[in-house]
Amino acid sequence: MPTRWAALLALMLGSSAVAQEQTISFPSGVSFETGDTWAYNGKKYRLFGVQSCLRGTSYRLDTGEEGDCGMRSIASLAALFSTDTIACQPIGIAKDSVVFVICAAQIDGVTIDVGTALISSGAAFAAVLPSGVPLTAAYAVAEMTAKELRNGLWAGGFDHPVTVLTRQR
Fold this sequence. Notes:
three-stranded antiparallel sheet; seven-stranded mixed sheet; disordered N terminus; alpha+beta
């Protein structure tokens, strides 16, 4: 089982370390690793329940635009971070010390959930357990809606990251 899935499973089973209770604010200056993971002040953070496109996989939109799907996911996350300070609540720590977080951003005076924004815009997807069950029902609904509306990556073709990860197992 890939390390990422093992970490998520461990978190869901309650065997991971207890999360910090304070909110963490992220100013600009974070280092994005994927469209759901970044580093800041020597620690790694990952959006809980979000699966970004994988680097090295391709997308092609109906407009003819094409490129690296993982880099497109990173650009979407970076765009949210550029709007203002992102505030995240730690909810667990994986065995590899990545801190799982749920984050909110302020955009035009409105607070939005970062995971929902990424998924509903078609820039990321609902993460699932190895069994295929989504980690969060709300994110699964956001993904289905984005797919129906053909938002973002859903407006063209791409390899869904969950399918790619499942094939790798």
